[in-house]
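Homework help thread (please don't just give me the answer)

Our assignment gives two proteins as sequence + structure token strings and asks us to describe the second one. The first is just a warm-up. Here they are:
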Amino acid sequence: MSPSPASPSDPRRPLRILMVAPTSFFADYGCHVRILEEARVLQRLGHRVTLTTYFTGRDLEGLDLRRTLAIPWRRDYEVGSSRHKIAFDALLGWTSLRTALTLRPRPDLVHGHLHEGALIGAGVARLLRRPLVFDFQGSLTAEMVDHGFLQAGGRIHGPMRRLERWIDHLPQVIVTSSANAAEHLRHDFQVPGQRIFNLPDCVNTQTFRPALLDLDARRAARRALGIPPGRTIVVYLGLLARHQGTDLLLEAARQVVERRPQAHFLVMGFPGVDVYRARAETLGIGDHVTFTGRVPYEDAPARLALGDIAVAPKISLTEGSGKLMNYMAMGLPTVAFDLPVSREYLADEGVCVPPHDLAALAEALVQLLDQPDRRRAMGDRLRLRAMTHYDWTRGGELLLEAYERALRGHRLQSALG
């Protein structure tokens, strides 16, 4: 018989955690950053993390990664929904099971990221008689609609919603990145409130910090990117996609540049760089927008340090927005669409404008371009908010609380038979 799971407060030994990440980890964006930072903070707290993931992705020093085999007809993997994920996830299920059975000591709990990770993790956790924690990062069906993989109200939409609801009820604890996501689970998928634990996206405020570059270094870095001197830079770092608001950002940028020619937009991320660069040229702002492509996560602080203002035009209603944490920690005055997650993170310290309102987005950016003193004060307040509420030191403590709840619930469930 395998040993009983230890709780975070158990002095016998650290926890061993099996994480399941159904994605091409590590790829320098969004959910990958949350997965990475959760694993790192757990390691800093003395716990052991093993992470199973797809065969593609970037290896990172210090992480115990177990990758699937490749599939012969698909050597890479794009962002978002794909029919090829069925094969990827089948292989990930096998890899996760094999890893769980060979780890010594056996995992104390399984931490599944995204719905596919929760589904795979549920099978592994059941076999091991261990609790499952599900890291919820947005609605599965909503994401499929956002990516154009599923039609809202279509023939498959209903069955997929039912599958999503079933997965949502499998874990002992669901960890959400926002209060809005928690409410979404309660209201739309009838998940009991006692199973939901809110762990907001967090940030390493020692790595992401203001004044990272001195004036000469900033000028040199801007020059290397071909940004003309004297420009005030609006930065964006994240995926380039319609549901991320990239199209809206470029439309708003056109309005801003018409009114304030000294503005320059530094757009960092992927995919679709060539498509969006061509769009900027069509809008007549090609010489006021610089696209960098993918930025390695370890280079993100230095790249964000080139900015004077940050923008987050995301329009998805159920996903988190971890980039806001990085902006805030860097002390960047931030403009975002007024979505529940943006309001939760920024509170009254940033600028939130009505979703899809290009004129309001452009006006907010113009006002900040014109008011350097306001920019500095706003950046200072956002930095303080990040340090107070969203540092990963606090996030790690919250994650262990979620684990303790899952372990306690599993022990009670086992005792009741």
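The one we have to describe:
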Amino acid sequence: MPGKIIIHAGFHKTGTSSVQQVLRANRPLLQPELAMRLKGQMQDLMHATRGYSTWRDDLTLVKAATRFGALLDDLVAMPKRALLLSAEEFSGHMPGRGDLADYSAAPILLSRYCAEITARFPNIEQVIYFSTRAPESWLQSAYWEHVKSSSMTLDYDVFAKTYENAAEFEPILKAVRKQVNVAVHHTALEDCRDLRLGPADPVFDLCDMSPSLREKIVPQPIHNERLDKTVLLALLEANRAYADHYERKAAKQIILAEAQKND
């Protein structure tokens, strides 16, 4: 069994993609001391966690818990190694569309994950980690991500007013701590700017790896940076101009391809 399990559960738009990029790029190096599962390896589970955050029904919650348990059951022997599970979807969908107004599903989901771990490994150390971000900065980043990846047509001011509670992470962290009997850590993205590995450094702080291995980890470029404002405004205009899903998708693909060509 693992020596320790760390769940990096988000939040979205707080440097999680950059953390996962560092993990992915350094996986062979880290393998002797750190096992990991990233969201690409947990698609069925992520589908259930997103579903629960949307529907909040008991059946989908059971599905998420069952699939998390199956993930644990499929683990190969990893004596003394820490296991890091990293996916912002552990907290559900990113808020900001329709009725999904906040991360209030996260405490319920995390409590079920911890219960599944305890049922299998009752004596193992569990840790939950969140990265956070200043509210205004998070709202802007979330808004433009929705513009890029969905049919978002709201003006930013309307979006920010409608979903302002989604950027208040402290109540969610407190709720998680009430739901679970494990350590819950968090670090603001703004506090990671001068760290050698950026937002990945606080994650590695929890992984109990040797200093000699840690210093060999290779930093990676910032991942999933925001597009140029002109491109984002063009995507917003496409969302407003095309009601048909396929026409809208095609128009946005042209905008993104042109932006990539000019980058």
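TA reply:
I won't write it for you, but here's a hint about the kind of observation we're looking for: Residues 245-262 form the longest helix (18 residues).
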